[in-house]
Write a structure and sequence with these properties.
mainly alpha
Length: 391
């Protein structure tokens, strides 16, 4: 029996682990599939669009030709004026005039655009030009942003659990170190000896029978027969329940003959896992200074790696770019030469947004507590003091 039950227990443990991880994997896979489908859609629509020369583009070429012809041979005299005019003219130019749509809206470029849409970063470097692309972009964001927030909330629970457990373990370790420093060796040894002596005196006896219990209790003997029968009946029921409780825990043998019970209970557990999304994040209570330190270290690590393939960025520019990205501000003032490399860093962006989201949540809770204190303090000040009149 032991050899046959051990594999069944292993299978049950694997099934429990699978159904416990299933909601998290389901959300992440949904977001990845949604991003890939959006990349295929936008690369087909925006990448295959026909390049039409608009009236603004023609005017730009005419003005540029006029400036080139009006430039005199003596460049030193008209150098300042020419620089100003050419600068103003280039500011009127649009980026799409000089970029091939197929190169800009490749699969990786479209995937990068989709990530900036549902993460609400929106750098502004890549945007749809066609009317169909704009309509689909609005529809894509309408469903993608809630899905992204759902993934953020789900992963926020995991990070909140890790942070809270790590912080609690750190506090326990800190308290142990403090107690070991305060406690001298002699007193601690005396306390341990007293505890060992007290524990050695404890004797675990076998459970008494009902008749032995009745013989040992004089109060039961003195009572009438009908009351003794009632108490005897209650004791018998309690003793029967104690014997039947361990049998309920042996669910593997029962469910092996009836798999429908296993499926029903498993499905209920999976549904409970979906209902618990966001609960751990609400319970998180760590110092806000710790979260700020975690964000600083997290951004610093990326700022040290990003200049390896983005040669136009140094550490400070990369730190600024990562902060603007993780906070979903996305000015678009920092241009990426190789966005597809940063796209492979998308897991970093999602986890970083999680950390920033947790920090914002903690800051929000602290602000609410501060507002409550201020309101209660102002209310106490404005409340009229009670006057005691003499009788």
């Amino acid at each position: 029996m032991a050899s046959t039950s051990q594999p069944q227990r292993g299978k049950m443990a694997c099934k429990k682990l699978f159904w416990a991880v299933f909601p998290h994997v389901c959300f992440i896979l949904s977001l990845v599939i949604y991003a890939f489908l959006g990349a295929l859609m936008f690369s087909h629509i925006e990448g295959n669009r026909k390049v039409e020369f608009s009236e603004d583009y023609r005017k730009f070429l005419q003005n540029l030709t006029y400036l080139a012809r009006s430039l005199s041979d003596n460049i030193t005299e008209n150098e300042v004026k020419f620089k100003k005019e050419i600068h103003d003219l280039l500011n009127t130019a649009e980026q799409d005039w000089f970029v091939n749509p197929k190169e800009k809206w490749s699969f990786f470029g479209s995937l990068f655009f989709c990530c900036t849409v549902f993460t609400t970063v929106g750098y502004g470097n890549t945007y749809p030009v066609t009317r169909t692309g704009k309509y689909l972009c609005m529809l894509y964001a309408l469903f993608g942003i809630p899905l992204m927030f759902l993934v953020l909330t789900d992963m926020g629970d995991i990070l909140a659990t890790v942070l809270s457990k790590s912080y609690n373990e750190f506090r326990k370790l800190q308290s142990k170190i403090l107690t070991s420093q305060l406690c001298s060796g002699s007193t601690c040894s005396k306390r341990s000896e007293l505890k060992s002596r007290a524990q050695s005196k404890i004797v675990i006896n076998e459970p008494l029978t009902i008749m032995e219990v009745l013989k040992s209790q004089q109060s039961v003997k003195r009572r009438p027969i009908k009351y003794r029968n009632v108490e005897l009946f209650e004791m018998l029921i309690a003793r029967e329940n104690e014997h039947t409780k361990p049998a309920r825990n042996k669910s593997i043998e029962r469910w092996s003959s009836c798999p429908e019970l296993t499926r029903g209970k498993t499905m209920s557990r999976v549904i409970e896992n979906f209902d618990k999304i966001g609960k751990e994040l609400e319970k998180l209570d760590v110092p806000i200074v710790l979260m700020v330190l975690v964000i600083f270290v997290y951004i610093s690590c990326a700022a040290a790696i990003l200049p390896k393939w983005e040669k136009n960025l140094d550490f400070q520019e990369a730190f600024y770019f990562c902060f603007i990205t993780l906070t979903t501000i996305g000015f678009g003032d920092t241009q990426l030469e190789h966005p597809k490399f940063f796209l492979f860093f998308s897991l970093y962006i999602i986890i970083g947004m999680e950390i920033v989201f947790i920090a914002f949540k903690l800051g929000q809770d602290r602000l609410i507590v501060l507002y409550k204190k201020v309101v209660s303090f102002c209310a106490e000040k404005k409340m009229p003091s009670k006057k005691i009149y003499p009788k």
